[in-house]
């Protein structure tokens, strides 16, 4: 019997978790000691979603004191947005596995978990289809001026002669036979490639961790980063956040791009040097950008990106879909079930693989 604590929220409710765990555990479900804790997110001391680190975690939501006081002696902790700090781990000496329903559980202090011998897992690929959809949506919106035209029509300015969109003097790019460069060719990048292929686009892929055969399988050509930024008409950022990908695109890369190039980022804000991006957009060094993630979130009102006319912005919503919650629960529940059954971890899901060597 394993002691399992599932921290629920308004997105992933108790009913959804219970069904997911029952499906994954089968007959073993009733023999486990499973508790469900509804996370409070509106108390005065609740952490708010932010990219600014607090106590070793970020992008966390919820009442930290509640988690600390109610974690008990759970061996398995199942979460989504709850803050899991060193203090939380101190409160539960029996903790062995933190299984997160997020692809990148930055709301868990993974460094401390590794020191304590606690495995942290995420859900690789859980949001790949909707993020790929959103990537193409941002690209289309920016290239074809969809959001700008919508705003102009709604305001009435589109039908006035001074508006350049009225006479279509602003160029509109066709996507067929253009080249899209995908930086990061994991599950999201491959889903983007599938969609780009449907548009009749040529595909370049930059990812040091794949071989040429993998790129070829998805209709892409594996290249280095310099080649990708020089030759691509559209550049999609789909890499995972890591020290290696921090500011993967900066002043050097923007200087190498075509003046007609567009950049889309639906991965993590830190992968693009935002100041360099703003400069490139202000100087028309590149044609435009579609951005869903930012170096600092929530986005502040004085962020210079908000003053530019050649950018389409969404508020970190690329992963939303009618299936993403169920997919997240199914993947997380599968990880829990494998642990309960004594099976090996899927290495790609382990955030801190160094702990497995201890």
Rg from C-alpha positions? 22 Å
Biggest beta-sheet profile: 7 strands, parallel
Per CATH, the superfamily of the largest domain is NAD(P)-binding Rossmann-like Domain
Distance, first to last CA: 24 Å
SS class: alpha/beta
Strand content: 5-15%
Classified by CATH, the class of the largest domain is Alpha Beta
Shape: globular
Helices, by number, come to 12
Stretches where pLDDT is under 50 for at least 5 consecutive residues are none
The CATH architecture designation of the largest domain is 3-Layer(aba) Sandwich
Count of the separate structural domains: 2
Helix content: 25-40%
The spatial strand order of the largest sheet comes to 8-7-6-9-10-11-12
Q: Give the quaternary arrangement of the chains.
A: single chain
Taken in chain order, the helices and strands follow as: EHEHEHEHEHHEHEHEHEHEHEEH
Please tell me the overall pLDDT: 95
Q: Per CATH, what is the topology of the largest domain?
A: Rossmann fold
Q: How many beta strands in the DSSP annotation? A: 12
How would you describe this structure to a colleague?
It is a single chain. This protein has 358 residues and is an alpha/beta fold. The protein folds into 2 domains: 3-126 and 322-357, NAD(P)-binding Rossmann-like Domain (Rossmann fold), CATH 3.40.50; 128-313, NAD(P)-binding Rossmann-like Domain (Rossmann fold, 3-Layer(aba) Sandwich), CATH 3.40.50.720. The protein has helices at 14-25, 64-70, 86-91, 110-115, 128-143, 146-155, 187-198, 212-217, 225-231, 251-256, 274-282, 324-340; strands at residues 3-8, 33-38, 76-79, 97-100, 119-121, 179-183, 202-206, 220-222, 234-237, 262-265, 288-291, 311-313. The strands form 2 sheets. Strands 8-7-6-9-10-11-12 form a 7-stranded parallel beta sheet, with helices on both faces. It has a 5-stranded parallel beta sheet with strand order 2-1-3-4-5. The model has no long low-confidence stretch (mean pLDDT 95).
């Amino acid at each position: 019997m394993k002691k399992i604590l599932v921290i629920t929220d308004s997105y992933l409710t108790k009913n959804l978790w219970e069904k997911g765990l029952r499906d994954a555990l089968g007959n073993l479900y009733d023999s486990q000691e499973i508790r469900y804790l509804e996370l409070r997110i509106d108390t005065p001391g609740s952490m708010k979603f932010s990219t600014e680190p607090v106590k070793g975690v970020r992008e966390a939501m919820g009442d930290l004191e509640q988690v600390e006081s109610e974690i008990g002696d759970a061996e398995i902790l199942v979460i989504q947005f709850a803050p899991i700090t060193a203090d939380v781990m101190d409160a539960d000496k029996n903790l062995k596995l933190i299984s997160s329903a997020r692809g990148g559980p930055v709301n868990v202090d993974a460094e401390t978990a590794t020191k304590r011998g606690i495995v942290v897992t995420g859900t690789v690929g859980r949001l790949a289809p909707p993020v790929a959809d959103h990537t193409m949506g941002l690209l289309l919106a920016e290239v074809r001026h969809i959001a700008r035209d919508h705003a102009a029509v709604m305001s009435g300015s589109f039908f006035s002669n001074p508006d350049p969109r009225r006479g279509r003097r602003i160029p509109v790019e066709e996507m067929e036979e253009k080249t899209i460069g995908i930086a990061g060719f994991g599950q999201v990048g491959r889903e983007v490639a599938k969609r780009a292929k449907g548009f009749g686009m040529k595909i370049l892929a930059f990812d040091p961790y794949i071989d040429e055969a993998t790129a070829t399988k998805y209709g892409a050509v594996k290249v280095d980063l310099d080649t990708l930024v020089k030759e691509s008409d559209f550049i999609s950022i789909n890499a995972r956040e890591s020290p290696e990908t921090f500011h993967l695109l900066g002043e050097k890369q923007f200087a190498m791009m075509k003046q007609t190039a567009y950049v889309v980022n639906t991965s993590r804000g830190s992968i693009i040097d935002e100041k360099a991006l703003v400069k490139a957009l202000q100087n028309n060094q590149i044609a435009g950008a579609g951005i869903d993630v930012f170096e600092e979130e929530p986005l502040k009102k004085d962020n210079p990106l908000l003053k530019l006319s050649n950018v389409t912005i969404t508020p970190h919503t690329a992963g939303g879909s009618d299936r993403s919650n169920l997919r997240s629960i199914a993947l997380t529940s599968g990880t829990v079930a494998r642990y309960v059954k004594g099976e090996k971890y899927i290495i790609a899901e382990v955030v801190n693989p160094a702990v497995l060597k201890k």
